Structure formats: structure tokens, C-alpha cells
Amino acid sequence: MTAKIKFQIKAIKHNEVQHLFSLTNDELSKYNAKRILVNEKPGYPCRVSLKEANIGETIITFPYNHHDVDSPYNATGPIFIRDNVQTATPKVNVIPEILQNRFLSVRIYDSQNMMIDATTIQGKDLKSTIQKLFQNKFAHYIHIHNANPGCYNCSVERA
Predict the structure, then answer these.
(1) Cα–Cα dist 7/127, whole Å
(2) Is 118 helix (H, G, I), strand (E, B) or coil?
(3) pTM value?
(4) pLDDT tier for residue 3 given thresholds of 50, 70 and 90
(5) pLDDT at residue 35, as a whole number
(6) Phi and psi, residue 125, nearest 5°
(7) Which of 1, 11, 119, 150 is most exposed by smallest CB count within 10 Å?
């Protein structure tokens, strides 16, 4: 039986990215960013609110350095963000809905920011997978990506 290790899902902070909504399309292009009108739900998970964008909502997509570390695993990838949302703060050991029904890539890093393990799972298995992976004493933090497109979703830390 997997020990009940406490963990905390971490969203991208609102104040890191909200300024993008004040930029013109020309200014956004300097960041390789684009505005998109949402035409399906689910399909555009916001990495700040950790909720799906609504049909008709305008979002911004851009390359985000989600693993800004001194390591070969430094990484940037595309994300979606919604306007005027607060940073999600899920309760300890709670999995946001946007992760529960997706095929996920789970990447585990040590204290030197080196990947020490990775797996793909169905979102319904995420909670037990996180708890199992954090049994490894070298597992310092986890990144969760959508497996097929590879887009970053959020990080996980021990609580």
C-alpha cells in the first residue's frame, strides 16, 4: 500500500503572466505569443487558474520557461493563460479537474534539477502516482505535462 505522502499542486503565478493581456498583438509577437478565441471545451487548460477556458473566451498562448534551472533539463514550452483569473491554490493532496481526464507525462526531479524518473499515466491515477513517486527520498519535485502534446501543466511539491 502506498504511504499517504502529502503534496501540493502549484500553478503558475498570476503576476508572472497577467501583463501579457495589456500588450498589443504586435507586442505579443515579440514574445512569440498569440491571442486565441476558445472554440471548444475542454481544450485550453489555463496554467494559472488550473481550469478550462470557456468557449468564446480570449486566451493567450506563449512559450513559458517552466523549468528555469541550471541544468540540462531547463525547458520552455507552450501554455495557455486566461485573463483576470487568480492563481489556483488547490488544497493539499487535491488534483485539479483539468488533470483528472487527461493522459499525463509525470517527470520527477532531484534537488540538483536533474530528471531522475518519468512515467505516463491517466489523470485518474495521478494522486496515487504522486504519492508513490515521492516515496523516493531523492524526488524533490514533479512536473506534470499533457503527454500527447507535451505541454506543461503544473508542478508538485511535498506539502
Answers:
(1) 9
(2) strand
(3) 0.94
(4) low
(5) 98
(6) -100, 5
(7) 1
